[in-house]
Amino acid sequence: MERMSATKSRAVYLLKSLVTSYVITLFLLLIVSFMMHLTGMGGTAVSVAVIAITVLSVFIGSFYLGKHVEQKRFLWGLIAAMVYFIVYILISLLVKGDNPVDFLEYGKKLLMIAASGMLGGMLS
């Protein structure tokens, strides 16, 4: 019985960490969008900002999760990162429509997101 409640609480904390990550992502992307509108930032600067925002938000969400999960925090950070990445891919594919998929770009993002999730979990 105790094991079931521990699993349930981990799932709740996982969901909370994902919501935290996506709220941070949304807030920071809105700021970058506003800055882009005001300053006319170029595509390279926006790409770097999006990557930095994604890595930072996954790190913070995994750090939060690691604080509440007592064992295997790096693994839980990786799980949170993978769920974040799956949702990220689904949204990206919906937005792209018929455009070709760049698997190399997705692979790079997967590695960055996974590393930041594991690091957030380990450092918590």
What does this structure look like?
- The protein has about 120 residues and is mainly α.
- It has one domain.
- It is about 90% helix and about 0% strand.
- It is built from 4 helices and no strands.
- It has helices at about 1-40, 45-70, 75-95, 105-124.
- Helix 1 crosses helix 3 (about 75-95), helix 2 (about 45-70) runs antiparallel to helix 3 (about 75-95) and helix 2 (about 45-70) packs parallel to helix 4.
- The longest helix is centred in the first third of the chain and has 38 residues, at about 1-40.
- The protein is globular, with a radius of gyration of 16 Å.
- The two termini are about 25 Å apart.
- The mean pLDDT is about 90.
Outline of this structure?
This protein is an all-alpha fold and 124 residues long. The protein has helices at 2-39, 43-68, 73-96, 103-123.
Largest sheet: none
Total of helices: 4
SSE order: HHHH
Poorly predicted ranges (pLDDT <50, ≥5 residues)? none
Shape: globular
* CA radius of gyration: 16 Å
Distinctive features:
88% helix; 124 residues; 0% strand; mainly alpha; 4 helices; globular
List the helices and strands and how they pair.
Layout: H1 2-39, H2 43-68, H3 73-96, H4 103-123
